[in-house]
Amino acid sequence: MATPAPVNHDREPYALDRRSETAPVLDLVHLSRQTMGDQSLEAELLSLFDRQAAQFAPRLAEPCRPDEIGARANLIHTLKGSSRAVGAFALGEAAEAYEAAMRAGAPDDAGHRERLLAQIAAARAAIGKLLERG
């Protein structure tokens, strides 16, 4: 049987959204497991994710026309997967809800869009703090 990857225990397991101490923005234990404890790889993945989120946010901020629903759902799906890969599970949940609504044929909903954008901002802020601590 394979030996589990070492987990980096020398830091807080969560980067918390200070508006809600119980809502983790980033699950750093998950990220450490994904990278087998390689902190330089963690930083690289977080940086790549941050760039992706920065590119997607302006596109997601605009209301979606009916003819763009499929493309918007695909964009959100991509963000959902990458956010979960780096441990941004609250963002992944917001993306999942928005994507499901769009794929079910619901019109673009400002509530889903605003929740997703708020989670993107929270994740990017947490990543910024982590990367500057480096």
Automatic annotation (TrEMBL):
Keywords: Phosphoprotein, Transferase, Two-component regulatory system. It holds the Pfam family Hpt. GO terms for molecular function: protein kinase activity. GO terms for biological process: phosphorelay signal transduction system. PROSITE patterns: HPT (PS50894). Residues 38-134 form the HPt domain. The keyword Protein biosynthesis does not apply. This is Histidine phosphotransferase.
